[in-house]
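Q: Got a minute? One more chain.
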Amino acid sequence: MHRSRRAPLLVLTLVLAVASWLSAPALAAPARAALATAALAARAQPAPHAFLATFDGRPAAPEPWHGAGWDVTVHSRDRETWQELEPIAAHHGGDCSAPPNTHLTTSYEDAVYLCNNHLMTAINAGGYGVVYLTPNQQIDFSTGEAVVTFDLSTLRSSSRDWVDLWLTPYDDHLQLPLDSFLPDLLGEPRRSVHLRLGSSNGQSHFSASVFRGGVVEELKGQWWTGYESVLTPSAVRRDPFELRISRTSLKVGMPTYNLWWLDERFADLGWDRAVVQFGHHSYTPAKDCAACGPNTWHWDTVGINPAVPFTIISGQQRWASDARGTTVTFPAPAPADSHLRFAAIGSGITVSFDGGASWQAAQPRPVREGKDPAGAFLSYWTPIPSGVSSVQLQGGSWRGGLWAARDFSIWSLEAPADPAPASPGEDGPTD
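A: Always. Here it is, folded:
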């Protein structure tokens, strides 16, 4: 990972200049505030770089994964699944032997795991379930086109089990975004670009939507040609997928096969930097046919270029509730200008950053019009003071039972304290 040596000197020069201006008595208060804000932004935002995650590691057995610098959120709608997920015969044997060998999993931790130098997501939800993986990298297309690449298996066991990507401005992102027409959660972000792997006539293809407030723009594409027309679907081979985006264009496809589902232009998005979320959805996957069932998706070699790193500090406890404990600790203190991020269901969710001496209402993200916030997990995004490394939560019951919260992290636009370097992969494109 390369970072310009000139960037610190430029930031230092700006900060010194701002300090000199701030000491000038003739400078108006609004101008001083604007300059101070600019100095903070310059300090907090590192230079763009090329990001690459290769998920290296060959454990003797499937190893639960929560990589440094990644947010991992595992959600299941039905209350009966909040202690354990529904069973799934997840790909790779108990010794990490390749598919068709499998191993049985039911725990939240096992929904994301490592084998043979790549990553798997495996979830089975008779109601609704989703896994979201979010790296601490914003895609940056402020100076032109930017690219997201990833390698993915292509075998599908049900049209009701799919993957997707959300590209959302930092200030608008949701921990649990979901299409409004689906039966869970609280809708899409206010601003976002969404890619979804769909199926038509047995053919798998990506479609895309642009969200601008309450307006949804469905992008046209070549939906009638699926990847099954150019390859034999496989669980052991991971093929490259590519997304190219600018403020006014989007191109999505599989360059190895010269298969492109979208190559579209649209009105200016009005933003040019975004959080990137990779999702795996399960929605009663056995419903379509007698042979249908939940799938395991195999991921590898995730790239974002150019990317701007930011800080994600994951909590050391997945759940908080009256029964499981109400304190969440973090391995490092919150940097300046941080937010506490988590998902919760219940009424009157409050947080304490000082050991219970004082409490404040946790701040939920906006809810899509027409959705019911009283009966689903909300995405929370609450300012947290710098230096805090322990949080307490309280809540009240909702109509379905007791409150619960899960998947905690601290986010800040400041650069990570110890950014993980990009590294070449050790494995080939197959298990």
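A: The mean pLDDT is 90.
Q: Perfect, thanks.
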